[in-house]
Design goal:
The complex is a heterodimer of chains A (about 110) and B (about 110). Chain A is an all-beta fold. Chain A is about 0% helix and about 50% strand. Chain A contains no helices and 11 strands. In chain A, strand 9 and strand 10 form a beta hairpin. Chain B has about 110 residues and is mainly beta. In chain B, the strands form 3 sheets. In chain B, strands 2, 5, 6, 9, 10 and 11 form a 6-stranded mixed β-sheet that branches. Classes of the chains: A mainly beta (about 110), B mainly beta (about 110). At the A-B interface, strand 4, strand 5 and strand 9 of A face strand 5, strand 6, strand 9 and strand 10 of B.
Chain lengths: ~110, ~110
């Protein structure tokens, strides 16, 4: 079954803890993205990666980190430095130089207690 | 800086009525625009892209560079059109990324 898989769907974290959200795709897409979705603010770009071992900061990268060691994987770490981490996180992928269509995962909801 | 605005947070129409979801953008480059839709309990998915000039599920959108707009239209709304709609702009900076608007929730009433 091709697509993007995000895990976990729901995650609770205590303040001061780092947490890593997983994103895996088997679409053979070069580009991968992390967005944060908040009510009334739409999707805001955290990080994106066009190729393995390379990634770029988006508009709200502070308090987040990523890695791209494999083409199919793009994990996001929400660090304790992120001031307001409770949110819904969406991972997406696309073909470089393609039509521009983004393929999204189902999302991960992080709640900081 | 690139930006996408959607002035309506919520739009309610009756079944069979025309619907127009507004989208405006600001971008210094050549714009590539998209509409994404999120139905209840489903993933965010592409509805249509301006370069295709296609009609999907009865929806159309025309890029108006003079007004920097990409409004989504449908002549006769159906209840199954109720969803969250996002307008998105493709930005070619380092590689390609996408800027999304805040979204409009469309509610089609019976």
């Amino acid at each position: 079954d091709g697509g993007i898989t995000q895990s976990p769907k729901y995650l609770f974290r205590k303040e001061g803890q780092n947490v890593t959200l997983s994103c895996e795709q088997n679409l053979n897409h070069d580009a991968m993205y992390w967005y944060r979705q908040d009510p009334g603010q739409g999707l805001r770009l955290i990080y994106y990666s066009q190729i393995v071992n390379d990634f770029q900061k988006g508009d709200i990268a502070e308090g987040y980190s990523v890695s791209r060691e494999k083409k199919e994987s793009f994990p996001l770490t929400v660090t304790s430095a992120q001031k307001n981490p409770t949110a819904f996180y969406l991972c997406a992928s696309s073909i470089l130089g393609g039509t521009g269509e983004l393929f999204f995962g189902e999302g991960s909801r992080l709640t900081v207690l | 800086a690139q930006r996408v605005t959607q002035p309506e947070k919520l739009l309610s129409v009756f079944k069979g009525a025309p619907v127009e979801l507004k989208c405006n953008y600001s971008y210094s480059g050549s714009p590539e625009l998209f509409w994404y839709v999120q139905y209840s309990r489903q993933r965010l998915q592409l509805l249509l892209r301006h370069i295709s000039r296609e009609s999907i599920k009865g929806f159309t959108a025309d890029l108006n560079k003079g007004e920097t707009s990409f409004h989504l239209k449908k002549p006769f709304a159906q209840e199954e059109d109720s969803a969250m709609y996002y307008c998105a702009l493709s930005v070619r900076d380092y590689g390609q990324n996408f800027v999304f608007g805040p979204g409009t929730r469309l509610s089609v009433l019976p």
